[in-house]
Amino acid sequence: MNARVIDGEIITTRLDDVRAYEGVRTRRILAFILDYCIVALLTIPFAILVFLLGLLTLGLGWMLFSVLVPVVAVLYIWNTLGGADQATTGMKMMGIRLDRLDGTRIDGLTAVVHSVLFWAGNVILTPLILLVTLFSDRKRTLHDLLLGTVVSRSGR
Length: 156
Prior knowledge:
The protein is mostly helical. The protein has one domain (21-153). It is built from five helices and four strands; from the N terminus they run E-E-H-H-H-E-H-H-E. The longest helix has 33 residues, at 24-56. One of its GO terms (cellular component) is plasma membrane. Residues 26-147 form the RDD domain.
């Protein structure tokens, strides 16, 4: 729980307030779409660099195209979701952020693992990822439950 007892007084955090989860599911889906577009746009300059590298290496550099999008996405997640705001650009635009239930900060590695679990879960259990939010506390997805994280409204 996020409630702590200090000098016999129960102190609650914003994660205990139900208002912090109003509209999170819809905002989360919209943030995903925005982030997907941002990663696609960020891939373009790197694709140009890989193309030029391929010309210089007589085609060997073009093998990097196979890992280009995942590498760009991991770097994006590491720097945004694992950063000080604990939110990607899409999440910031939607007014949500990722928090740990124990109150510690989200580091880059946890952010990347969160994202990888999301994609792995979508490949294997697509409808289950969103169905879990209908029955779990705080509208948490399957990968949130596994990592002890929650997505909440940042302004509340």
